[in-house]
Each structure stands twice: as structure tokens, then as C-alpha cells.
Amino acid sequence: MANSPRREFIIKATFTCLIKFAFSYSFRNCIQVPDNSHTTYRCINQHEPDITLVVRDLMSTATNLTVSQGSFEKIPEQAFQHLPNLSSLLLDKNHLGNIDKGAFVNLTELKTLNLSFNNLSSLHRDVFDAVYNLRELLLGSNKLAEIDSLLFSNLTNLQTLDLHSNGLNHFTPLVESITHLPNLTKLDLSFNNLTTLNHTAPLPQSLSTLYVGYNNLHTLGCDAAFLMYVKVLDFSNNTLLSFEGFQGLNLGNVTNLRLSFTKVTIIKLLNYTNIRPWHVDFSGLKLKDDQALNSLCNLLGQKKQIRQLIFQDNSIKSIKNITLNQCPNITGVLDLSRNDIKEAGCLEFLNSQNKLESLKIEHNHLTRLNSCREPKEKFHSLRNLSFRYNRILEVSGFAFSHTPRLTNLQLNINIIAYLDHKALRGLRHLVTLRLDNNLLTDVYEDSFEDLISLETLNLRNNQLAVIFDNTFQSLKKLTILDLGGNKIAMLKSQAFTGLYRLTNLYLDRNRLKNIDGKLFGKLNGTLRVLDLQANQILYKTEHTHSPFINLTKLLDLKLDAQVPNGINLLPCAFFRGLTSLKQLYLTNNHITGFGAETFDDLENLEFLTLDNSCVGIAQLKPGIFKNLRKLTTLLAENMGIKFFSKEVFGNLTGLKVLHLNRNAMLTLDMGLLEKLTHLTYIDLRSCPLSCGCQNTELQNWTKSNLRVQFPYLYKMICQDHTGSYFHNFDTNVCYLDSGLYLFSSTYAFTILLTIIPLLYDKLYWKCKYGYYVFRSWFGEQWRRLRDQEEKYKFDAFISYNSADENWVMEQLLPNLEGSSFRLCLHHRDFELGWDIVDNIVAAVYGSRKTICVVSQSFLRSEWCSLEVQLASYRLFQEMQDVLLLVFLEPISERQVSAYHRMRKVMLKKTYLQWPGEDCSDPTSAKELFWSQLKRALRSSNTAGQEEQKLKEDNDQRRQEKTGVGVEEREYFVNQTPKDVEVYYLMP
Predict the structure, then answer these.
(1) What's the fold here for domain 791-941?
(2) Whether 481 contacts 506, CB under 8 Å
(3) CATH placement of domain 366-504
(4) Angle at Cα 591 formed by Cα 587 and Cα 593, nearest 5°?
């Protein structure tokens, strides 16, 4: 089946995005939330002129995108077309003034669109056509004065429309724009300039919540049935709106009507409309005297009980005992907040028959809570009581005896300086007590004596300096104790006695100077969270026992920002015992150094923040994180870290998020990065990464990895190359031509593999002989013997195989040495301790002649072959007549062919053949053999030299006759001298 145009577009967009992603897992202006899903992106505080430049490189898998606090003024067409899976798009707090009609094309999956806090003054009627699945549209805090009647016509799935804080003047086109939205449930038109609700079209029947407060309504001007389906209706702060505007309206379905700060007379409204009195919020209706309240209660009295009664902002100064007697029973909430009440007594104004659950007397002028030790009435149904935001200075004893079953008491945000020892007596069911943000300086041993059910106690932001022994001994069910923001400098040894279930202890922003291990150790069975931020904890020596040794179940420890200058020195094994800890906070502590064993016990740690924790360049010791294999998030910003080495970070195999911003690193170990297999996010902003060859691998890695996000890579400037960026600095100078290099090396290697076996098979021994010759030529012994010329030690060196030793000893030796020839034999005359090659060289060059006794065994001998090579070297290269060949047995030319130099000697010289016994006259033949051999031994070695001298004489004579010198003659005469032929035995 052929693809639809939309499907083809999605495929192309996805493919394009994947190509971009394949080249670099980084985004120019956005950060992907590091959750491995590639769906959530945040582009905050970006100042590109065009929003398309901000989002163009995001992946097509994006479902949630926030682009806020930018400086762009327009959304052009198809700005988000490559993000077809978006379901939430937040574009608030920018400077948008114009949106092209095709700006949201291809966003068919979009459910939420937030355009609040911009400069929009008008919208094209087709701008939202493409987002037909939209559920929530937020256009608040803009400059819209008019709404086109067709603007929302395509948003049939819209449920919430927010247009608050605009400049809307006309209600009619607005109603026309939403009348065909069958799923719209909430419409916010507050803070506009509407003067009437006059209309030509009805509201959608689905609309249940309508806010039109803070407008300029003076009349409603709508049909009787216009609001019949609305349930929550807010007309508050329309100061000109009077009762007449509601006459005849059907308000039968309204469950919450707000009319505060209008001119509506509530009594008339209740008498002349079908609104149910118990569904009206009576705040801000000037019900400040008893007569008005009594009249209202009489109207409410037709119902025996109501769920809530709200009397905020009515300037009520006092409530007499009989004021609310005529009102029906209140089963839920009575709210008297934001009035001028100065005295609440013991709540005598309440009907004892009421089943009231919650009473709020907040934002009034109460200055004291008096004793109610013997109240006239007790309110056993009351569970929640709030006196927040008053001016209460003192709470007397037994102040709550009339409310014995309270579970939630809020006395916070007052000026309570004195809390009587017995002020809370009788509150045995109290679960939550808030005394925070007061002026308490002391709490006593019996202050909380009766609070046996208390689970949460908040004493934050008071003036407490000491927690005395047994202060909380009765609070056996307490789980959360908040003492933060006080002046506590001392915790007595029994301060936490009785806290058998305490899980969260907050002591931040106090004046503690040390951590008492014994004190906290008493909480070892239950404590999960310990907050010690911003105290005065300081260590000057490493030899301090761990104060956490017994807190084996602690999960969260905060030690941030100790004042004035941080902890400075962490003692050895400071965190010993915290085997269950999952989160550790150490930011802003200016620690001079971390020991290698600092975190050894934190085997279950998952989150660690060390931001701004070091002084100068941090020298993190090898193995400092060796046991943190479960760590998933490490924040180490501005620590002066200079090296990213495997010795320090190599064991963090479970790490997913790594922040190294503002450190001193010049490069990263790429091998280590590859080994951190779970890493998905690494932030290196403001690090002075070098744009040199040492970072070529890192640059390539940022372009090719598909696993780790490198945020704001394209904005990282080269510190050492002004005007360059890290992602594209020139790396060509760092590379050879890898293709040529690989081809050359492969070609050479192939040739070697082909030639070496052939050379081994054909030239093994020749190469070996060449090695020895070369070695000898460079040897000191070689040079010394060459200069001796005719100063020889022996007449002949005998080269023979051991198989022919009998012939040498019985025939050769007696005949030659008996004739006064000096012979060199290897077994007799070689120097002890010399290398065998050096001995052979010395023998050849220390003898006038070399006699080779050639036989089949001789040809098979390696050393004999070497001796022939050395002697022939003197014969051919040095023009020395030194070699005599004696064949003991017939040797064919084929057998000698493998010995190139010996064959060459045989071709140029006549050799001696030992006569065998089978010849006709062996005796005469042998005599002739020895005679010829002796004559050869006596011959001179200078035949070659004589021939060379003869050539020089001829050259001189030719020059005299022709005038042609030797140098010129070399152009015409073959320079290679003729081989010298010396015949020792005539054929």
C-alpha cells in the first residue's frame, strides 16, 4: 500500500534527524533530560534570533519540549515539523509577538501547548489547525485584544483554554470561537477587560469551570440558560458587578460560586436565584457584622448540614457565641481567614453539635491563645486547626483542651516567643505539629509530653540554642523532626532519647561544630535522612573516629556548605559505617584533600555531589571511588580536577550522569570513557579543553557516539585557539594519510611473506656466510690482520672436515711440516676463549695460504663452507692468491654448483687431485702431488699486485704518448680488472 503524504513526511523527518544524531549526540541549544528515553528536552535561556536554530537538531523521538526565557520574537512556518511525536510544547516566557500560520505543522500528537508570558497581540485564524489533538492551550499573560471566531474551530479535543491576563474586550467573538468545542471543560478569562458577557452563541455544554474574575464586568447581559451547565463560576474582583446582573440566570448546577469584592448583595442573590446557598463562597462580601451573618445563616438553615462555609476577606472583627448558631451543621471546613479577628477564645462561637473537621483562622490579628483548661464545649470532631499568619506571641497552658482529637495543628508563621510547658497538653491524637517560623528560644522536657501519636514535628526557623535531655522522650512515634534554621550549638547527650521511630532528622543551618557519633548512634535502627547543611563543622586533624559508625541504615546525608569556610579536612575513614547510604551531599566545603579510603564504605551510594568542594587544583587520589560501583550520578563541578584518569574514575562502572563543569581538565582519557558503559550524560562546560592533537580522539568521539550526551558541545570555545570551537578545530595536522600508510605497510608485509620463504630455501647459507663475513670485516681482529700484509704466522691454514682427519694427520701433516712448512690446524692452534668465527678469521688472515681438503664430507660441513668463503674473499676482493683446493675424491661440477665461490675458483684455477690407489703408478703420482703442493705453498701472494702494477705502468706510458689521463681513460676501458689466473699444476 502506498504511503500517505503524512507518513512519507514523518519517515523523511525521522531519517533526517537520525542522520544528524549519528554525527553527534549533542545539541546546540538544548539539553536532553538524561533518562535514556530521548524524549524530554529543555532549551532554557537561549538567545538565538530564530527558534528554528534552537530546536533544529533535536531528535524526532522528542515528546516533551520546553523552550523558555529566550529572546526570539517569531515562530516561522514548519518550525517543529521534524518533531512529529511532540505531546507537550512549552514556549512560555519568551518575546513572541508573531506566529506564522504553519508554525505547528506536523504536530498531530501535541496535547499541551503553552504560549503564556509572551507578547502575542494577534493570532492567525489557521495557526492551530495542525494541532487538532490539542487538549490544553495556555495563552495567558499576552496582549491579545481580539479572538478570531474561527481561531479554535479545529481544536475539537481541547479541554482547557487559558486566556487570563490579556486585553480581551469583546466576549461575543470569544464565545463563537469555542461554542463548537465539545470537550472543553475549563475556560480562564480572568484579568482581562471584559465589560459584559453578551453573546450570540451558547457556551459548550461540556464547560464546567469558568473564571471571569478581575475584569470590568458591570452587568452580565447573558441569556438565562447561558451558565446552566457551569459548576465552578468565579466572578470575584469585578468591582462594578451587582445583583441585577444575575436576575433570571439558571445557576442550578453551580457548586462553587465566587463573588468576592463585587457589589452583589448576597441576601438578594440567594433569595432571587436558584443558586444553592451552601455552594457559594462568601468571601469578600462585606459580611462583617452579626446581623449580616445571622441573616445568611437563616438562609442556609433550610439545609441541615453543609460541607463547607468560607468567610474570607469580610473584615470580621469578632464572632460572638451566638453568631453562627442559626447556621446548619458544618461537616467539613469553616474558613475565617483574612479577616480582622483578634480573639478566638476557646471557639465558643462554634455550635457544639457541629461535626466540623477543619477550622482555618489564618491571616488574622490573633496575639494570644488563652488557656482552655475547663472549656464549656469540647469539639471532638475537629481534626485540623490552623492559626497560621497571625501575630500570636504566647500560647498558654492547656490552650487546646477543647480540641482533644486534633490530628493536625498549624501554629507556624507567627511570632510565638513563649510556649507554655503545658500548652499542648491533652493532644494525644495529634499527628502533625507545625511551630516553624516563630521566635521560640526553648522547648522543655514536658513540652511535648502528651503528644504520644505525633509523627511530624516542625520547629524550623526559630531561636532554639540548646536541645536538652529528654525533650522528645514521649514522642515514640515521631518519624520526622525538623530543627533546621535555629541557633543550636549544643545537643545534650540524651536529646534524642525516646525517638524510636525517627527516620528524618533535619539540623541544617544551625551552629553545630562537631558531629556527636554517640548521640546519633542512638538512632541507628531507624534513621534514614540526616541533614547537617550549613553548620560550623570543622576538622583540623585526620585522626578522628567516624561519627557515623553506627548509622548503618542511613540513606541520605547532607553536609553541604559548612560555614564560614567549609569542613576543610575530611578525617580518615570519615564515612565508615554508612554501608546503606545512597545520597551524599558535600558541596561548597573547600576540602583540602580527599584520602584514597574516604568513600570505601559507601558501596551502595547512588548519588554524590562534590561541587565546589576543593581548594585549587584537586588531586583526587587513585582508588578514591574504587568501591562506588553503584554510583549513577556524580556532580563534581568546579573542583579543580586536572586529570580524568582510570585510576580515579575507572571503577565507576554504573555511572550514568557525570558533571565536570568548570574544572581544569585539558583532555579526557578516551579509553576510560569507553569503559564507562552505562554513562549517558557528561557535562564539560567551561573546562579548558585543548584544541590540539591530544584531543583528536575526543573530538571524533563527540561526533560518532550514540550513547553519551555531551551538552552544549557546539558552544565550547577553544581556550588555546581564539575564535575556534572544540567540535570542529582542525585535526588534519594530527594524522598521516592512513589509507596510504595501511596500503604501504600491508604491501610490504605481503612481499616479505612471499620472499622470506624463497630466501630461506635458496640463500640461507649464503646469507649466513655473508653475516659472518660482514661481522668479521668490521671486527677489530679483521682490521688488525689486514694490515700485517706479509707478516704471517703460518704458511697454510688447513680447512678440512673431521671425517678426513686421518688423511690430514697421516699424509698432509708429515709431508708439509716435515718440509719446514708451518701449518695451522683448528684443533691445535685455535685460541682458547675466542669466538669460533674470530678464530677462523684469524687463521685465514694469519696464514699465507688456505688449503681446503675437499671431500663429500667437506661439502656438507657448515664451518668448512665458511672457511672457503673467507679464503675466496681474500682471493677475489683483495686480489690475494691464497686459496689451494685439494680434492681427496672425484667431485662432479653439479655437486659443487651450490658453492658459487668454490665453483668460480675451479673454473679459473687448476686444482690438485689426490691420486687414488687404483692409478697405474700411485707412488709416482703421490710424489708428484706433494711436489706440486709444496711449490704452490712457496709461491708469492702478490700475483694480483704485480698485475695491478703492470697496468699502472701501461697507463703511464699511454698517457705519455696520447696525453689521455687515467681519469679520461676510464670512459673507454673496462674498469673491472681481469681475474688473475695462477696455475699451480699444469694439466
Answers:
(1) Rossmann fold (3.40.50)
(2) yes
(3) 3.80.10.10
(4) 130
